[in-house]
Every structure is written in C-alpha cells, then in structure tokens.
C-alpha cells in the first residue's frame, strides 16, 4: 500500500516537473496574461469612449428636451448599463465561455438580488416617482421631515437641498411609502400667519390693521380671497389667524414682507403683542404676614 502511494506521488511529481507540462503551463499563463491585459485595455478604452460619447449626448437638444427629473435617472441607468456591457465583453475576451458566463451571471444575479432587495425596491420607487411625477427637479417639497428643493432623482435615491444648505439623500423606497408634500405642484399657495394680541386689544381694530396690510401687498391674490378669524384664546393672548393666497414664486417674499410690516402697523394703533406671563393674586395678605412672623 505504501509502495503504491509512493509510486503515485512520484508519478504526479514527474508530471508536474516534466518539460512538456512546464511549457504548456508557461504558454497558458502567457495567453491568459495577454487576454487579461487585452480585456483590461478594452474595458478602460471602452469606458473612456462611452464617457465621451455620453457627455456629448448629454449636451444635445434631444437629451435636453427630456424632462429634467428623468434626465438624471436616465443618465444613471445608461452609465451603469455601459459598465455591465463592457464587463461582460471583457470576461469573454479573457476566455469565459458564453454558457458558463450566463450561468455564472445568473447565479451572481440571484445572490445580488437577495442581498440588494432593498436597493431593488429603491429602483422600483424611482420608476414610480418618474411615471406618476410625484415631484420634479427644483420642486419645493417636504419628505420625511426634510424640507427643501429637489436637486436630483437618481436610480436609487432622491437628493434634496435644504434651505440651510444641507444635502439630504433619501432612498426612493422610503419616499413612496411616506407622505410627500409638494408645494410646487399647484400654481397658488396659501399661507397662514398667527398674530397674537393682548386680551385688552380692540379685535375690530386688529382686523382693520390686517386688512390694510393685505390691501397694500400686491402679491396677495384676491381670488381666493383672504380670510381673518380668531384662531384660539390662549392663556396670555388672543390668537388671530391671517390666511391669504399668493403665487408659488412669490410665497416667501410675501411672507417675510407681511412679518416685517406687521408689528409697526400694530404699534401705530397701540396694540401690543403679549409675551407669556402669569398674574398672581393674593387674597388674604394678613395670612401671609402671620406665617412670616411664625
């Protein structure tokens, strides 16, 4: 048994150290190295050509005529697709058989699909956003507590630039499963400003001041008309709601203009804006004097 085992090892050693085997191994290694080099060169050159061609296409009128929201999504798909195509051709150049490559890619695809199921839901979410036009680039939106402008819609995520300059990326899958407020969807937008005045204020006079503010602002729409009403009786103030409509593009200018002119207008008629306070009334002063002496 030991002699048979030693003979087997000797035969294997002779095979691997034979001149013919070493020549074939060297030739195969050189061919594989050559194919790998060619595949790498092909991939790098192809990638460069794709980038130049795509960059030229992105500047054409045909691409610019596409909706701005779909452009970023389409460019992401084209870029990813070009990499996959170049990678497959490069593997064929290296020497992979088509049948083996298809089976390999199939198994890899199943594994990647299971591992990246969340990203697949993000991809589907991106398609739903584009198909149903939930929002577009430059729209003013509020998504999952993030308030700002849509800067891009990519394959897997949506990017929002907040008004404080922060860049927020939200997975598309989360977008379609949460509430989305699109303030740019309609041409007009209503604003609501709460004005707090003291209890001793003349409410009719307050309404008159607010109406005069509305009349002097050209950005406030007459139809739908403005609305002023008492919103709430607070502990220290009466809250009056001022509700007006304006164009989307002039919303913030109108909002800040009203806030700027509001207090001076109230001051002119001696109407004060109260701050939270509490009045303490002592009913029996003698009781507290006795307690202090004790």
Number of strands: 8
* Beta-strand share of residues: 15-25%
Report the end-to-end length measured between terminal Cα atoms: 113 Å
Order of helices and strands: HHHHHHEEEEHEEHEEHH
CATH topology of the largest domain: Helix Hairpins
The proportion of residues forming helix, as a percent range, comes to: 55-70%
Question: What is the correct CATH architecture of the largest domain?
Answer: Orthogonal Bundle
Rounded to an integer, what's the Rg over CA atoms? 36 Å
Number of helices: 10
Largest sheet: 5 strands, antiparallel
Low-pLDDT stretches are none
Average residue-wise pLDDT: 82
Shape: elongated
CATH domain class of the largest domain: Mainly Alpha
| Strand arrangement across the biggest beta sheet | 4-3-2-1-5
Structural class category: alpha+beta
Number of domains: 3
């Amino acid at each position: 048994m030991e002699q048979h085992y030693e003979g087997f090892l000797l035969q294997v050693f002779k095979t691997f150290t034979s001149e013919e085997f070493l020549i074939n191994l060297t030739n195969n290694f050189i061919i594989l190295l050559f194919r790998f080099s060619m595949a790498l060169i092909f991939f790098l050159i192809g990638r460069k050509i794709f980038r130049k061609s795509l960059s030229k296409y992105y500047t054409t009128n045909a691409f610019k005529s596409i909706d701005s929201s779909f452009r970023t999504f389409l460019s992401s798909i084209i870029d990813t697709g070009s990499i996959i195509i170049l990678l497959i051709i490069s593997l064929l150049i290296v020497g992979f058989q088509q049948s083996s490559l298809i089976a390999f890619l199939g198994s890899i695809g199943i594994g990647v699909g299971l591992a990246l199921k969340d990203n697949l839901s993000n991809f589907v979410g991106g398609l739903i956003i584009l198909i149903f036009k939930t929002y577009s680039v430059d729209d003013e939106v509020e998504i999952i507590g993030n308030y700002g402008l849509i800067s891009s819609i990519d394959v897997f995520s949506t990017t929002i630039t907040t008004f404080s300059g922060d860049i927020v990326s939200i997975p598309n899958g989360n977008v379609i499963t949460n509430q989305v407020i699109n303030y740019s969807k309609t041409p007009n937008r209503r604003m609501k400003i709460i004005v707090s005045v003291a209890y001793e204020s003349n409410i009719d006079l307050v309404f008159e001041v607010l109406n005069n503010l509305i009349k002097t602002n050209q950005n406030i729409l007459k139809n739908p008309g403005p609305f002023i009403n008492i919103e709430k009786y607070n502990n220290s103030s009466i809250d009056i709601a001022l509700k007006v409509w304006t164009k989307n593009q002039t919303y913030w200018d109108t909002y800040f203009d009203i806030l700027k002119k509001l207090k001076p207008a109230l001051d002119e008629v001696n109407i004060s804006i109260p701050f939270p306070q509490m009045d303490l009334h002592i009913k029996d002063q003698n009781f507290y004097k006795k307690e202090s002496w004790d």
